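WARN  no MSA supplied for this record, continuing single-sequence
INFO  ligand: MGD
INFO  echoing inputs
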Amino acid sequence: MARDAVIGACPHDCPDTCSILTTVEDGKAIAVRGNPDHPFTQGRLCVKVNNYQDRVYSDRRVLYPLKRVGPKGSGQFARITWDEAMGEIAERWKGIIASDGGQAILPYSYLGTQGVINGLNVGDPLFNKLGATVSERTFCDSASCTAYMMTIGHTPGVDPESFVHSKYIILWACNTLSTNSHHWPFIERARKNGAKLVVIDPVRTRTARLADWHIPIRPGTDGALALALINIIVKEGLVDRDYVEKHTIGFDALAERAADYTPEFASAETGIPVEDILTLAREYATTPPAVVRIGVAVERHAGGGQTVRAIACLPALIGAWTHVGGGLLQLPIWAFPVNWPGLMRPDLQPETMRVLNTWRLGPALTGEEPMDPPIRSLFVYNANPMAMVSQQQKLEAGLAREDLFTVVSEHFITDTAKYADIVLPATTQLEQKDIMFSWGHLYLSYNNQAIEPLGEAVSNTELFRRLAKALGIDDPFFFRSDDEMIEASMDWSSPVLEGVTLEDLKAKGYIRLNMPAADDWAPHRDGNFPTPSGKCEFSSTMAAGGNFVVPLFRQGYGGSQSGETVDPLPHYIAPNESKRTSPDLAASYPLSLISPKSHAFLNSNYGNLPAQLAQAGEEQAVILHPDDAADRGIVSGGAIRVFNQRGAFEAFATLSPDVLRGVVVAPAGYWQRSNRRGATVHALTPPAFADLGRGPTFSDMLVEVASA
Ligand SMILES: Nc1nc2c(c(=O)[nH]1)N[C@H]1C(S)=C(S)[C@@H](COP(=O)(O)OP(=O)(O)OC[C@H]3O[C@@H](n4cnc5c(=O)[nH]c(N)nc54)[C@H](O)[C@@H]3O)O[C@H]1N2
Ligand SMILES: Nc1nc2c(c(=O)[nH]1)N[C@H]1C(S)=C(S)[C@@H](COP(=O)(O)OP(=O)(O)OC[C@H]3O[C@@H](n4cnc5c(=O)[nH]c(N)nc54)[C@H](O)[C@@H]3O)O[C@H]1N2
Ligand SMILES: [Mo]
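INFO  complex generated
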């Protein structure tokens, strides 16, 4: 019996990017396990991925090209050949381009796989070449990244492994044990060395339960808290004068601004007692090394960007950056020398291009959002918009359009793929090769292909080669092999890759970027922030310049929302939907709904697979505080309807004092099959942009709940 362990890397859109060993027997993957040698993976895989082979060999996999034979959305398909599929797509697209122009074609994608060659940008060059509408992908961390760049620049920040040296750790809107679980051992080690762990979250999550101090907060009010911390630190003389003098700009203006945000003001907004706000500020400022880890969730509100601006000012204010294990951790992805322009090829875009934000997809398809030319064809890969974006009813109506030619590349017939005219089978990570960055640690990974593709599944790179061929494109760029693409995916001359060869990377599966050791590294001890001024910018020079753009690799056009200038100082923007800002709305819909990540799903991945559904619960649950439930006569396990001015979905009630009163929680990622009437939480989420980077406001909403 031939038995091998193949070294690969987890493909998911998750900070941990684990090193995976796949046991292959006679060409079949029989098990996966975490690589014990990898310093971050430490031999453990999560509940989502530890049976990855079951995803690969699931009898629900799409393994052949399919063509719709029933009505739109019926999920009735018949097998066709790749030649037929490519022939039909090329013919339809050529016709559309001739009659309406390339912009009538809309690609839609995200990070179904995070591999550098198969992931985010794999389709960009082709769609740019066709002059298709550009899909602006800003629903994950775009407001946060824009704010972060404005304040401290594109720095990796604190090495997540340096947390072992921290003495005061704040996990701010981050459910580490579910969404970044391989970071936990480092936090645990710090605690063994005496660190205090604080979690700021409206929910007593599994992470909050293990913290020394859980601070419940009303959703979307973190900006008020952060500004009050600045207020107290300034007023009580806890500022590191020397650091501020040398390595920041705009302190006086920040101090003056923060004077408006008293602990009393913050308490009224956040629901946190004044005493606790004072204690948090004092402990944070006087317990070095102090570190803040922000979760993506902190941004999903009207003021998400400015919230991150305020938080990003804190470490410089107290000189936290002078210590190993002190400062801020957001996304260390900035450390990886990825050749983004080479992947995206923005140079291929025509001069006039149309940009459509991903969660405007529904109204764009129905025509509610004026589209000239209208969208005639939609091409979805690496994404499941029916499960993950707002305006679900409109999206469903748009996808049901008879004249819309929809193609979806997938592993499964998702809620989105169900509406396709053509479904194309995609390989999983075991069936393809790739090179991987991480947004949660500093190791570059290589995913060796473990098994041959199942059925007629192809990798995304191969899919786009086939499309280019069918469309008669002759530029050799579109026909590079995976190896050539991997070779071109990084700037190998970058100092962080000094001495690294692809051969070594393939053999070992991962290498640490050539950065100082985590035990000995305070990245901004001497300032050196990659901002325009080289300093931490309390007062942002980018914002002071008027309307500005932070081009992100996600084709997010960060910056101010729609052309207006941005206040260069951090400030508090209250939620769009709250008792204070929209009392009339709150009279009908008094509860705040958030939809954080599920422990057992990865976004909507695994929302159809038995092991993960068994862990998460087959049906969508909504968690309410027992008093909020009692007020409405709702009992544990009862069927409920959750609704607001935009829509409704049905679920069953789970009662728990772990959620703050006035807050309801619908874990994200469930498919329509798990909801009683089909609609999911995105029937209710708002389509508004946050203040910076066109971030989402998915968690900025009021709802009411009633027994169904
Ligand atoms: N298990 C699992 N892991 C994942 C994912 C997944 O779907 N499942 N998805 C991956 C992806 S794409 C991402 S972006 C990351 C996201 O990683 P996180 O940002 O950690 O994920 P969330 O669960 O969305 O939110 C974290 C916590 O923020 C809280 N929260 C919500 N609103 C607020 C608020 O206004 N203020 C504060 N202080 N807290 C708030 C939620 O209750 C939740 O416990 O996780 C990645 N990892
Ligand atoms: N309510 C709510 N909505 C949210 C969020 C939230 O927290 N709450 N989070 C937001 C965030 S942070 C994110 S990142 C987005 C995520 O939004 P999406 O990226 O659209 O969500 P996924 O569920 O990860 O969908 C990825 C799809 O790609 C498929 N796929 C996987 N690998 C491959 C491959 O190699 N090739 C192809 N062709 N397909 C593949 C998977 O089967 C899956 O169906 O959702 C956003 N929406
Ligand atoms: Mo995300």
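Residues 82-100 form the longest helix (19 residues).
INFO  checksum written, moving to next record
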